[in-house]
Amino acid sequence: MSDWTAADVPDQTGRTAVVTGANGGLGVEVTRVLARNGARVVMACRSVRRGETAAEDVRATVPDASLEVRELDLASLASVRAFADGVEERIDLLVNNAGVMNGPYRETEDGFEAQFGINHLGHFALTGLVLDRLRAGEAPRVVTVSSALHRLGDTAFGAGEDGYGEWTAYGRSKLANLLFAYELDRRAEWLTSVACHPGWAATDLQPRGAELSGSRLRYLVTRAANALLAQEPEGGALPTLYAATAPGVHGGGYYGPSGVLHMRGPPERQASSATSYDRETARRLWSRSEELTGVEYDLPAPGAVADR
Hints:
- This protein is α/β, with parallel strands linked by helices.
- The protein contains 11 helices and 8 strands.
- Residues 224-230 and 304-308 have low confidence and may be disordered.
């Protein structure tokens, strides 16, 4: 695994992948590599216009790419349901990639704190609503993109504006991603559910949060840090691609860059925080997420067995 690259992605011919946030950053690079290796990719994007532009970019390097752009706004449960209702084909791979990072307090269309609502609840609802399409897939996988910054988060899931801290809220949403990914793997024995993180990759995610804060200085510092320290999106996409396609991936795993401080480098299996493996916390989050989204999974709760 230590020298694994995009060239090692196995043939994906005949597989259908859904990639959220496929209009830019890591999402478009994951789409490009999957398409290059034969997958049909549904690009689930908040902006169809930006999604079509990204699809044109992919086709410029992969002329025979099989792509379809569909609208999906994870900040709207109505949009999530509409997207899921339009999925009639089987899904072999679901990549829960889209997300937002820090910025001032905002709410989704449904009144949830935006980072928790988009990064976790939107993907929780989406996965549950397409569960039957995944069940029809061949060796289905669900990959949920978290962050090394999940360690900054607490378990005050669903917290509102009082005491809001942008980095704590981001960490909370990314911790929720991990708890969800691990719990899904325990409940759905017929699929492989894993999590990953990209390290530090230069995308619009970080500058966008700074821009929303209204600080020009912070925006410029973030752009400069990305230029000097971050890896390119192609490198940041590797852990997701490994988790999504490598034959040696095991359910309940967490994959990230193997380099210094896990910020860049070839992917490897890693350990996440102790809290992310807490089964009681995962069960509470699952129940709360079903309550908040109105999406109930037709899956049994896992038995009381030892943690992985």
